[in-house]
Amino acid sequence: MREKLRKLRLERGISQTFLSKALGYSYPSGYSNIEAGRNKLGYDQAVIIAKIFGVDVSDLEEEQLFFEKKLHDSCNKKLA
Predict the structure, then answer these.
(1) Number of Cβ atoms within 10 Å of the Cβ of 31
(2) Which of 70, 4, 1, 63 is nearest to 53 (CA)?
(3) CATH code of the domain in which 65 resides
(4) Hey, CA dihedral for 68, 26, 9, 40, is it positive or negative?
């Protein structure tokens, strides 16, 4: 997933600082730690990043079932 995030970010000319701020981090290292693999990408963060990159959340995922389960759980909460 790290390689996908880096590739998409560089293709779109988006800085790590911009993504850090979009995700609510105070420092650029917030996002760079995700891209470097030091921190895991959460589902809510993936939704924000996917929107910025103009891709589907499933395009970011490493293990498809992880985000599918989160999406399913999220949809069920909204319907309840």
Answers:
(1) 26
(2) 4
(3) 1.10.260.40
(4) negative
User: Does the pTM of the predicted model rise above 0.85?
Assistant: no
Residue 40 has pLDDT above 90, yes or no: no
The arithmetic mean of pLDDT across residues 32-54, rounded, is 90
The torsion angles phi and psi of 56, rounded to 5 degrees, stand at -80, 150
- The domain tally of the chain equals 1
Structure-token pair, residue 28: 């650029």
Q: CB 36: neighbour CB atoms within 10 A? A: 13
pLDDT for the residue 64: 43
Angle (CA) 53-55-60 rounded to 5° is: 90
Q: By the 8 A CB rule, do 43 and 67 touch?
A: yes
What pLDDT score was predicted for residue 56? 87
Query: Cα 63 to the chain's mean position, in Å?
Result: 13
Q: What is the pLDDT of residue 60?
A: 77
